[in-house]
Structure prediction request, 347 residues.
Amino acid sequence: MAKSIVGVDIGDDSVRAVEVKDPSKQHPVVTRFHQLPLPEGAVRAGEVLEPHTVASVLKKLWSTGGFKTRNIVLGMGNQRVFARDITLPYAPMNQLRESLPFQVQEHVPMPVSEAVLDFYPVSEVMVDGARSINGLLIAATKESVLANISAATLAGLAVMDVDLIPFAITRVHRAAGISNGTLAAVDVGSFMTNVVISRNGIPEFVRIIAGGGNEINEALVSRLSMAPATAELAKRKLGMEPTNLAEAAPASAVITEISGELLSGIRKTLDFYTSAQPGRSIDRIAITGGGARLRGFTNALTELTRVPVVAGNLRDAATLSSKLSRIDGDHAQSMMVGLGLAMGHQA
Prediction:
């Protein structure tokens, strides 16, 4: 019997779930997708602040989305999640993970007793003649991880795994066949932007940047006294493209300023990676996420970084069921993280 798992992406303004059949196969099948809005303040910057509120929305999501399994993989990606390159003495992976609390305290910005730790191996290296493993150290505050798990369990869901959103994005790009060479995957969310740089499909560098599409809305509301719905409409209509309408100039200026700050943060992140990797350059940028659909954003990123930018394509990574075959581009983008989370689960 085919196995199914649901990838759950809890964002700041909505929760999305993607059910995938046989997720470990080369081209898995997406059988169901549904999303619902979250009340304001229930989640902030990817962190669940009101577990009972989120649980209520998850229950409704399952009843209205028709999901056939309650087994889920939860995504994590906020500024209380830390990822850094590190080299550790060689050991079998189970022993290495058990030893992390004794080896990494100086590398993480929190007491290890308050952290959930993991290690993603990248390559074996020799350090002073000793066999070692280079990889990515992942650390997240227990509080933030447990809050997300609590919301899911209160909704009657079984959390099979918790995974890093940047890793999920990388899986989708790898399955879509665009991860050869050095790829920078940039996923622009509501208040957070995930950046993961991979080499031939293997993640080597992860940063989670504060900033996303909803910061534009907040600036329009606070600076120009716009209603939230009007701010969203202005953002979608104007984007970063020039306008000749005098009445639209103030909003256009705010949108361009806030977007420029995020673009600058992305560029600095990419520059940091290349400066630490002599002789290496980024071959392409793959951009996903709702915030990336802002008009003019992709062109501005290309001009700023001088790197080709492509849009992540879910259809190249998975097969959509007949019920989802006509889904539009916006919804397909919303499915990317959930698909990648499900693809990482090993039954």
